[in-house]
Design goal:
By secondary structure, the protein is an alpha/beta fold. The chain has eleven helices and 13 strands. Strand 5, helix 6 and strand 6 form a beta-alpha-beta unit. Bound molecules: nicotinamide-adenine-dinucleotide and uridine-5'-diphosphate-4-deoxy-4-fluoro-alpha-D-galactose (UFG). Uridine-5'-diphosphate-4-deoxy-4-fluoro-alpha-D-galactose binds next to helix 7 and strand 8.
């Protein structure tokens, strides 16, 4: 049994990772400033697992506070989810993104170095690849992010790789997520976006529950089978289990980058149909012009995750929609 520091553990993905960690017998201390989450999520995590965790409110840019937590609780590893994640906001407020994501991660790493904690699982994103030169994206696809959010992720990845070169006794797993959706099967935790959701599935779920009238489909003239954008949606619990596999793979020092996706692309219309089946009602939509910055299609090569961590995603698009809907219908207004 070890103590894992989970930054951003109250957020969408972090809360599901906490469930996976607690269920696997690990102890957890969450470090979160709740800027985009609710402490209720952590109560629900404990309810699901029948086990308690420690919650510390703080900002990852507060190096001393992190160092204190790492030392006080004898942490052996860090799962680092904390940060800002909206592509659109990163274009409008790049300095805030570089501050919270890059400087925050730098301070966290320095606190780890000073405390002698050398194991890190990091939340990166498929957005580091940029415009596809080929598909599926393999991990050696060129890294050329096209927005400030993606550039902050790439800088953090580079910082982690440089740290490993300077001290190969570190263990670092860089996990490039594709499109996380769904919720824990209990329906107790899930994604709770503030304001109008940017992402497809949360928006569809809010239409289904009656919080929004119609879905706008951003473009039906893409070079895809039905003309709508294709993405690699992955169930958030598969993603959470991928973090456990990464942690196990770091039982000896190493540094690796892996995609966490299913390897299968689904179009916007396929997602809408799967969600309609899950919720039992029709999702009204309008076809609109393309959203700036969107690309036709992308999906993951999954062989590296399977080879290095023995992990593959197991849950179907139907399960993603059913679980997302259970969360949304049980909690129409999220954690409020
Ligand atoms: P989220 O916003 O739900 O969770 C992030 C958590 O970090 C929140 O609880 C927030 O309060 C906290 N936080 C933010 N800034 C902080 C700071 N400075 N100090 C302490 N806590 C802070 O996001 P998520 O969807 O769970 O994403 C988690 C991570 O995964 C992020 O790093 C994100 O960039 C990455 N990621 C997410 C997606 C996605 O589609 N959700 C895709 C790829 C990568
Ligand atoms: N879409 C719509 N209507 C909506 C929302 C989305 O038609 O209201 C479409 C998009 O045009 C796209 C698809 O649904 O074709 C998926 O869009 P999302 O916004 O859900 O996801 P993205 O692939 O655009 O972006 C996500 C994360 C980013 C991350 C990126 C790469 O939101 O943070 O994946 O990992 F950078």
């Amino acid at each position: 049994m070890t103590m894992i520091l989970v930054t951003g553990g109250a957020g969408y993905i972090g809360s599901h990772a906490c469930v996976a960690l607690l269920a696997a017998g690990e102890d957890v201390v969450v470090f979160d400033n709740f800027s985009n989450s609710s402490p209720i999520a952590l109560q629900r995590v404990q309810q699901i697992c029948g086990k308690s965790l420690i919650a510390v409110e703080g900002d990852i840019r507060d190096e001393r506070a992190i160092e204190q937590v790492l030392t006080q609780y004898n942490c052996t590893a860090v799962m680092h989810f904390a940060g800002l994640k909206s592509v659109q906001d990163s274009v409008a407020e790049p300095l805030e993104y570089y501050d919270q994501n890059v400087i925050g991660s730098h301070r966290l790493l320095r606190a780890m170095q000073r405390s002698g904690v050398k194991t890190m699982v990091f939340s990166s994103s498929a957005t580091v690849y940029g415009t596809p030169k080929f598909l599926p994206y393999t991990e050696d696809h060129p890294l050329n992010p096209v927005n400030p959010y993606g550039r902050t992720k790439l800088i953090i990845e580079d910082m982690l790789r440089d740290q490993y070169v300077s001290d190969p006794s570190w263990g670092i797993a860089i996990l490039r997520y594709f499109n996380p959706v769904g919720a824990h099967e209990s329906g107790l935790i899930g994604e709770d976006p503030r304001g109008v959701p940017n992402n497809l599935v949360p928006f569809v779920a809010q239409v289904a529950i009656g919080r929004r009238e119609r879905l706008n489909i951003w473009g039906a003239d893409y070079d895809t089978p039905d003309g709508t954008g294709v993405r690699d949606y992955i169930h958030v619990m598969d993603l959470a289990l991928g973090h456990l596999s990464a942690l196990k793979a770091l039982d000896s020092p190493k540094c690796f980058s892996v995609n966490l996706g299913t390897g299968t692309g689904s179009s916007v219309l396929e997602v809408v149909r799967a969600f309609e089946k899950a919720c039992g009602s029709t999702i009204p939509y309008d076809i609109k012009s393309r959203r700036p910055g969107d690309i036709d299609a992308y999906y993951a090569a999954t062989e590296t995750a399977s080879r290095l961590m023995g992990w593959t995603a197991a849950r179907s698009l139907e399960a993603m929609c059913a679980d997302h809907w259970r969360w949304q219908s049980n909690n129409p207004n999220g954690y409020c």
